[in-house]
Specification:
Oligomer: single chain
Number of helices: 5
Subcellular location: Cytoplasm, Nucleoid
Distance between the termini: 72 Å
Radius of gyration: 37 Å
Main location: cytoplasm
Protein name: DNA-binding protein
Pfam family, one: Histone_HNS_N
Family: Belongs to the histone-like protein H-NS family.
C-alpha cells in the first residue's frame, strides 16, 4: 500500500497532516474527495446496470431458445458437428532459375521469396534475371 493511501486511511495520520493545513485547504480537499467518491459511485452503479441488462438479455435468449425447443447442447453440437475442411497444401512451385552459389554448388530458385545472394550480386552488377532462367 502506498504511503498516501496508508495516511488517508488512518485518522491519526490525517490529524497530523491536517495540523499543518488551514481550514480552506481542508475544505478544498474534502470537496475533491466528495467529487471522486460520487464519480466512483456512479461508475459502480453504471456497471451494475450494465450487468443487469446483460442478465436480462441472457434470460430473453434463454426463453426464446426454450420456445423454439432448442437446448444449449443442440447449439454446442451444431458448432462442433461441422468441422472445417482441412486446408489443402499447395504443390511446390517448380524451379524457375538456376545459379551457382559461393561454394560452387548448382542451386535453383522458384522466383518467390528473397532473392538468393549470388543472383542479387549478379543483378547489382548489371546482369538480367533472364540470364538465370532454366
Amino acid at each position: 500500500m502506498s504511503d498516501l493511501l496508508r495516511s488517508l486511511r488512518n485518522i491519526r495520520s490525517l490529524r497530523a497532516v491536517a495540523k499543518n493545513l488551514d481550514v480552506e485547504h481542508l475544505e478544498e480537499i474534502l470537496e475533491k474527495v466528495k467529487t471522486v467518491l460520487e464519480e466512483k459511485r456512479e461508475e459502480v452503479a453504471q456497471a451494475a446496470q450494465q450487468e443487469a441488462e446483460r442478465l436480462k438479455s441472457l434470460a430473453e435468449v434463454h426463453n426464446f431458445l426454450k420456445e423454439k425447443g432448442i437446448t444449449p447442447e443442440d447449439l454446442i453440437s451444431e458448432q462442433t458437428a461441422a468441422p472445417k475442411a482441412p486446408r489443402q497444401k499447395r504443390p511446390a512451385r517448380p524451379a524457375k532459375y538456376q545459379f551457382t552459389d559461393d561454394n560452387g554448388n548448382v542451386k535453383t530458385w522458384t522466383g518467390q521469396g528473397r532473392t538468393p545472394l549470388p543472383i542479387q550480386r549478379a543483378l547489382n552488377a548489371g546482369k538480367s534475371l533472364s540470364d538465370f532462367e532454366i
